[in-house]
Amino acid sequence: MKKHSPSTPKLKTAWTWIPIKPSAPLPQQHVPSHNQPQTLFALQISPKLPPPRTRVKVLGLTSSVKRVAHMVFKRDHSTVAANGDSPTLLPEDSDPKKLRASSPPTVQIPGSPAGSSSLVSNEDGGGSTSGAAAIAASGLPDFLLQDPISLTQKFKALNVKQRERFDDSQNEDSDFYISEDAEVISRNRYANIHVWNSTRVKLGIDAVDHDYINASHIAVESGQSGPKQYIATQGPKQDQARHLWLMALEQTAGPGVIVMLTRTFEMGREKCYPYFPQDMQDSWRRFDRPEPGTVDPFNFELNLLEYKYDEEARTEIRKIEIKVLQGTHTAAPDATGYVKELGPGDTKIVWHLLFKGWPDWNVPEGDDSDALLKLIELANEKNEVPESPLIVHCSAGVGRSGTFIALDHMLPEINHGAYDSVEGESDPIFDLVDKLRVQRMYMVQSESQFEYLYRIVREKMEERHGIPPENRFLSLPTAPSSSSRVRTPSLRTLSRKPSLEPTLAK
Predict the structure, then answer these.
(1) Is 160 part of any domain?
(2) How many structural domains comprise the chain?
(3) Which one of 84, 314, 325, 475 is CB 3.0 to 4.6 Å from 47, fit for a cystine?
């Protein structure tokens, strides 16, 4: 084996850094070898010059110590550049393994309103004394004071419960049975977004062909106003566009309401076929039963009667008339349907509300978030028969659709004071999302959407309790820890995706 001279050892450089000369030349005896203690030098940087892209050479240290040294040098260097102070050189006999750790960072609270500058240090785990006092005086229930890590754990618990339902999906007697019939599979937009057999919508008019549509009945119980009905469905593909209008004919009473929460194309991919008339220049569509064979045809057309844009709700509003052209309604719908018989010349009005300010997998922010709450009000105004279900869809019909339904249920509950008396470990938001997923898989699909529900409810509860905007979100607690140093979760949590994304059906 080739030996190196002690005076000129062959050293392995951890990084390739631009060399900077220290304030004084180093004596030859201070050149380190592999058998001698090593020294870490902080190098002099002129505060009058812009900070160069400096790097230091750290010799003979373990990889973990190197990372600490690198962070400390970066912090001290940036402090020098900001304050104009000269750094103090470490003494030559200092021990590099006794490097002091970086100070706990000051971070913005995840989930705080857009543009908020409220900060909290994670050093003591509870924020400022005034912030803690504000929370104590706010009267908010405990489920709204959870730290982000606790919400992450609860979201994971929801996914565990969902996987348990999947374990029963091949049992035909189970509420969570998933059909693998070829016709069923062909009508799904995504290969991994199915409907539970117990809550699926059955098409009455087309039952002689096939009664399947990727849509689920959703019922949410309210202690104030009783149960409320929804239908959550996917954005239809081109060859299933008529199924959505048939469902609107059958399943809604009075003027029906369809809430669309997706653009037709996002990031270069079709999220939903444009199944509705676009504007007054493109105001007519016709849908015929394809290849009727021995089955009587049932054909109808759509006519766009009105179009306007609501600035406050940032929503395109279309008033559409469905008119039967040929055939009669002979197949009875399922028990929740409203249509008994339809014939040529019969018409029905459907309001179509298109909201484009909500990106897939994420949440609306700023003015778009305010507009979403106005959209919820608008949808309920257009739904003249309260017992009639709102038809809600995005692309897969689970993430944005589930979040919309959850908000539509919770906002009246807040106004009626239903959450004022929630005590202990009770968490109505967690329970609501779990109930939604019992009726349709993946409702409130991403963790950011789950956190968004807590943010909106907390904001509305603070308004209810009269907390002024400047005092809101002062000190959302950090996660508990046995040590004095509490870890603060990364802000990337807000955009984290679940492990299972919708997979396009083939």
Answers:
(1) yes
(2) 2
(3) 84
pLDDT tens digit sequence for 85-108: 444 434 434 343 333 343 433 333
The whole-model pTM stands at 0.70
Asked, for residue 503, whether it belongs to a domain, the answer is no
Dihedral of the CA atoms 126, 129, 130, 131 (nearest 10)? 0
pLDDT digits (tens, 9 = 90+) for 191-222: 999 999 999 999 887 656 788 999 999 999 98
Q: Helix, strand, coil: what percent of the chain each, to 5?
A: 30, 15, 55
Return the SS3 of 87: coil
Same domain, 98 and 158: no
Residue 29 corresponds to which tokens in the numbers above?
């005896």
Q: CA of 446: how far to CAs of 163, 284, 451, in Å? A: 15, 37, 9
Residue 375 lies in a domain: yes
- State how far the Cα of 249 lies from the Cα of 322, in Å rounded to an integer: 8
CATH of the domain at 333: 3.90.190.10
Residue span of the structural domain in which 356 resides? 154-463
Tokens representing residue 258 in the block: 């369809």
